[in-house]
Adenosine 5'-phosphosulfate reductase
Amino acid sequence: MVVMTVMREEDIVTGGSMSVEEATDRAADLMKRYGHLQGISLIEPMVHDEFNGRITMTSSFGTEAAALLALVSEVDANLPVIFLDTRKLFGETHRYREQLVDKLGLTNIKIMRPDEKLLAVDDPNGMLFASDTAKCCYLRKVEPLQRALTGYDAWLTGRKRFHGGERDALPVIETAGTRIKINPLAGYNRSDIEDIFENRALPHHPLEAEGYLSIGCMPCTDRVDPGTTDVRAGRWAGQDKTECGIHYII
Ligand code: SF4
């Protein structure tokens, strides 16, 4: 049975178990033992041995998200999957999420939404994205994710080096303050991702066919020209911004 939980404050388990120093040492130790692995070979020991019950994953349910979701579902379909519903997403993303959850048999989707009280103060008319994207991303992504990660020591992300920019030198295991971040697809390239889609007959995000390469919130996502190689070119196009800030959480 699929459980889709819209997280409330009282549902959140508090407290990670490591200090910053402990997380740093743990990441170094994990890198020594697992740093040569990727994909399922890396996900399995992280989920079953190293962080059993203390690990989650985040997913945007964007164009490439199905790849990591598929690998995770093969390891543990009950793993909690955090989905940040910024309330600015495309309707297609919500429908695609439902389609993938059904296809992959994922049973534990945690839908995190912005704090209504914070929005009422800082973004009462929902137009903050037009004047302050950093603050808007904080209210709609970073703060909800901080709440969602409480109680976990590790999280799996779908970031890849081939997306470029700050992701160029992405390690497979890194620290994020008191937590460990694991990036099982860090070394995957575009054709590796395509293989995962093909081999498992995964559906594509419906907006991909309309020219979107990377999909986030509606006001900050554009189509890109055919043949564009910069996967994230359509995100905050024309602005000096390439990341929403969730990967700076500590
Ligand atoms: S991507 Fe745009 S709309 Fe979404 S949270 Fe960030 S600034 Fe706001």
